[in-house]
Amino acid sequence: MTFPRPHRDDWLAAAAGLLGGLLLYRLGLHSQGDSRTPLPTWVTLVPLMVTAFLELLRRTMPRTALLVGTAAVVADQFTSGSIATVLMFADLVYAAVVYGSPASARRIPVVTAMVTIAMTIGFLAWFRDAAALLVGVVTGLVSFFPAATGAIVRNHREAAIAARLRAEQTALLAETDRTQAIAAERARMARELHDLVAGHLSAIAIHSTAALSLDDEATTRQALTVIRENSVEGLAEMRRLIGLLRDSSGDVEPAAAPTLAGLDALVEQARTNGRQSGLAFVLHDGRENGGRLPAPVELAAYRIVQESLTNAIKHAESGEVRVEVSGSPRGALRVTVTSPFGRRPGPRAPGSGAGLVGMEERVALLDGTFEAGPAPGSGGGPEKIWCVRAVLPVVNDKEPSA
Fold it and tell me: For residue 223, what pLDDT is reported?
């Protein structure tokens, strides 16, 4: 059986206790008179050496050291006695509380207190003299007092460990929150960048393809005009976004977020970009009057319409693209965009699916519902339409909460 390696301080405690006990023995200083025991004086060294050895186990095997140390200090009472043995036993009691199990740390102070009280009462009943109280005092000093001190030290250590763990958990939660905030901000920036630039780039791609494929001067001039308009607008949007990202001093005033009031201009721009593809755009605004909607709701609705129109320009067949907006400030805002679904001749811009993901994320942030996909046509025939529906809950900040 291999014993754990003793701590350096335990070696020092064992050496100091043993050398101190040997010095007291050499000087003839004993805790009890020689006449009180028939045993030879050298027997006092046996409990001394046992207790000194147990000091090596005070951290690694505190319970065993205390049990054997108790037997050694009791045996010391039947010899001439050594103060060093008693002091080392007190240290074993302290170590058993500090380094022992939680159960031992709770029980040892109680047991030593009961032993102190029992010793005091017992010697008072035996000697019937108030001087017997000194026995109880000495017993308390070498048993209960070290145990109580150890309990206080252990409680302080456990409180410090708990505080450190809480600090580490707080730091971990803060780091997690920071990571989530960065991820959310990156997702928001990706949505904004996509919604701001994708429409312009899609129009540029479609009209440049048409200009290259059709040998017609009027068509080419019209395509180049649309390309120039979209490239200038896209470049302006990119510069504004880059300026907001780079300048943190507050000198650059951020542009106002788009609202539903800009739907007319948005649809008109889509008419210009989609005319080459044979698309007609219709806006039906059926909102009830009663005040402005919250800014996040209006921004999300605007971006959903913007992205749906961009997708229609990129993928829809020739036909009517219809935008319907309805709702009230006390209910929910409903946005529906329908476009002809199917393969169309002529140039098309490739898609990555990021637009649908962005729209779904915007709706999810507002706890709304979103669906997009092919649906039967309104006439009941074999034709199909691509339908985007979003329901955005409206929270009225002026209403008192229930």
Answer: 73
- CA atoms of 327 and 300, how far apart (whole Å): 14
Domain ranges in the chain are: 8-170, 259-402
State residue 375 phi and psi, 5-degree precision.
-145, 155
Length of the chain: 402
| Residue 289 in tokens | 């009057």
- Which residues are registered as beta bridge partners of 320? 280
* Residue 369, φ and ψ in degrees, nearest 5: -120, 145
Q: Are 59 and 91 in contact (CB under 8 A)?
A: no
Report the pLDDT averaged over residues 159-183: 89
Element (H, E) at 369: strand 369-376
Which among 197, 182, 395 is positioned nearest to 296, based on CA atoms? 395
Other residues' Cβ atoms within 10 Å of the Cβ of residue 259: 15
Q: How far apart are CA 345 and CA 205, in angstroms?
A: 15
Say how far apart CA 262 and CA 301 lie, in whole Å: 11
Q: Which residues, listed in sequence order, are joined to residue 282 by a DSSP beta bridge?
A: 322
Q: Which two tokens stand for residue 107?
A: 């029980």
Give the whole-angstrom CA distance, residue 314 versus residue 321. Answer: 12
Strand partners, 375: 385
DSSP, collapsed to helix, strand or coil, labels residue 382 as coil
Closest CA to 233 of 260, 279, 272, 263: 272
Rounded percentage of the chain residues whose pLDDT exceeds 70: 80
**The pLDDT of residue 3 is above 70:** no
What's the CATH code, domain 259-402? Answer: 3.30.565.10
Going by C-beta distance under 8 Å and a sequence separation of 6 or more, which residues neighbour residue 204? 226, 227, 230, 231, 234
Both structure tokens of 72: 């050694």
pLDDT at 203 over 80: no
Note the helical H segments in 55-213: 62-76, 83-99, 102-127, 133-139, 145-213
Task: Let me know the angle formed at the C-alpha of 338 by 332 and 342, rounded to the nearest 5 degrees.
Answer: 150
